[in-house]
């Protein structure tokens, strides 16, 4: 759905028919006719349109995408797995000026409440062709976060789980981040509220992407990536549903995870084609101590228990507490979950929470049906990461790894692993 803001914007600046502003854009130049800057657009076919603002840099990025499509070497084939699908270029006329756009896949496609963060990787952001003036200017940007972690955060947006409110944070916010506040920004983006644990499913999915990208960079010596970003996206609506479900059910049937000081140091031996990623330490207990069949059966059983609970709750408006106690005493199956009992009697007290309770149960019901009927790939696709921005990618001039990119990527992974360790420690 195109917002009223986008429609008014299109009329004001005479955007081409079938296009609108990309409302999930979190970094880069905004649309400003007076300053002659054009922002990213979204096509009615669901693709993202990235403008070529500088001819030389745009030509370089177009060549990067097109060369990858035609390359046959193993490194290029692996890299294609981490970048957006490329659909060529389009010429569009905006404010009586012809502009070239790269047409790319939208990382937020199908998401109801897309939370998006742009993380620019690397302590050094200028390429080998940059002059002294450019190097000095780049060195003054995002100083504290780049010094501490080897990456910076130009911008992000997040839908708050409590009320669905959208909040946006731009480059002015990102430039103020330091060693401590970078962690606070990640917690804000990941909806880790004060006093609550991170969502394990979300953190594991993010890490599974990042571990694969790390394995790629620990193998490739072909490219050097300067001023390139990781674009991270997840659906807050899905996270909200999972958070409620996980908080309402007993997870003792799942295998435990062993803590480790680092989860990723042995990724050199990881087969990046494998699913799921299995490593020597860290979350070894999650994937190695239990077979995929066991995990699938455990999750399936929890889902069915939850389904039966909801079914009983929705059809039990006339059941008294005495009758429920009797059922819990005599039932041979899993007892009715306490939170559903509490919710049931709260709604019978005619408080103002009735509508919200019904809404939550409907969302839970929809989630369970999706898990029971949906395809595995569709269920896992609510968290995504793409490598983006390739205007400053150069061939490697030596037989070595891209240490500048590796430093920032490893720092990001370690921060997320700390979030995961908090969940493991509590459990």
Features:
single chain; 427 residues; five-stranded antiparallel sheet
Write structural notes for this entry.
The protein is α+β, with helices and mostly antiparallel strands. The protein is built from 16 helices and twelve strands. The protein has helices spanning 4-13, 55-70, 74-79, 132-139, 143-149, 171-175, 179-189, 200-217, 236-248, 284-287, 292-314, 321-330, 338-347, 354-373, 376-380, 403-426, and strands at 19-21, 41-43, 48-51, 86-94, 97-104, 114-121, 151-159, 166-169, 223-225, 228-235, 383-388, 393-395. The strands form three sheets. Strands 1-2-3-5-4 form a five-stranded antiparallel β-sheet. The protein has a five-stranded antiparallel β-sheet with strand order 8-7-6-10-11. A two-stranded antiparallel ribbon has the order 9-12. A hairpin with a 4-residue loop joins strand 2 (41-43) and strand 3 (48-51). Helix 8 (200-217) runs antiparallel to helix 16 (403-426) and helix 11 (292-314) packs antiparallel against helix 14. The longest helix has 24 residues, at 403-426. The radius of gyration is 24 Å and the shape is globular. The two termini are 41 Å apart. Residues 248-295, 316-321 and 331-351 have low confidence and may be disordered.
Mean pLDDT reading? 77
- What is the H/E string? HEEEHHEEEHHEEHHHEEHHHHHHHEEH
Rg of Cα set: 24 Å
Number of DSSP strand runs: 12
Oligomer: single chain
